Amino acid sequence: MTAVVLAAVICAGAAAWLMAGHEPGLRRAGALLIGDGPTGAPPPGAPPWERGLWRARTGLPRLGREWLCLPPALLLALWGDSPLPLVGGVLAVPLVRRRIGARELRRARERCADGVLALCGVAAAELRAGSQPLPALLTAAGTTGGLGRAQAAVLAAARFGGDVPGALRQAAQEPGADGLVGVAACWRVAVDSGAGLAAGLDRLETALRAEKDQREGLRAQLAGAWSTVVVLALLPVVGLLMGAALGADPLRVLLHTPAGLGCLAVGGLLEATGLWWAARVVRTGEPS
């Protein structure tokens, strides 16, 4: 029976790993047999077996990392002989997906903010080297990016004499690209009054760098608080492991007795409330 349970857990973990997109062998075979184009589609006139392989490859489900909650839940369900852990794992999937999405959005904002910072530095350096504003902006945007999805509009406005400040303000609506509003203001002032654009970009870069340093320092100070939250969240798991090591069989008590089910419900509610409250307290100190 133990071998069957272990085999089932291993198969479930392997399936979750593959469905999460970690199939280097399949991607390598597809790149060799299908080609490495923008979409990976076979060229016109390709043989049927190649088109079939492409359809099989693109038809594979690509699930996110949040689905990795299911293998541990399945392990607990098999170990405790109860479907409740599996139900809990399924309910945790959307919460983990939301957390992963928020983290990816924050990283995208930070990358875009770093691109704007680099854009200001490169453009100011090009202007001090004797370049004109439009070529300097084109060089900086092509080298560093930082304009988000509106980069094409800004480059087109710079190349063909369009409204560059308006395009920059439009690009500033991208998450993390707020600094482009300052670039647009510097551009407008330099065009209207003849003021030095390089000096304005230097001051803007200094302000953006100071803001970035402050944000990183605050996040480093909050890292200890987040570690405390994680440790407190794992304490019930440590208690279950200690009980199992002492031979108390806590899963049987929690999942198959009325008193255990009541304790599990109350403990889960208190755990969720404590995590929510601690995360809220820590987030109040995070930079917006």
From TrEMBL:
Indicate where this protein is primarily found: membrane
Location(s) in or outside the cell: Cell membrane
Output the superkingdom of the source species.
Answer: Bacteria
Which is a Gene Ontology cellular component entry for this protein? plasma membrane
InterPro entries per UniProt: T2SS_GspF_dom (IPR018076)
TM stretches of this protein? 73-96, 222-247, 259-279
Membrane topology qualifier:
Multi-pass membrane protein
Pfam families according to UniProt? T2SSF (PF00482)
- Per UniProt, residues of the Type II secretion system protein GspF domain are 124-242
For this UniProt record, give its keywords in alphabetical order, as a comma-separated list.
Answer: Cell membrane, Membrane, Transmembrane, Transmembrane helix
| Name used for this protein in its record | Type II secretion system protein GspF domain-containing protein
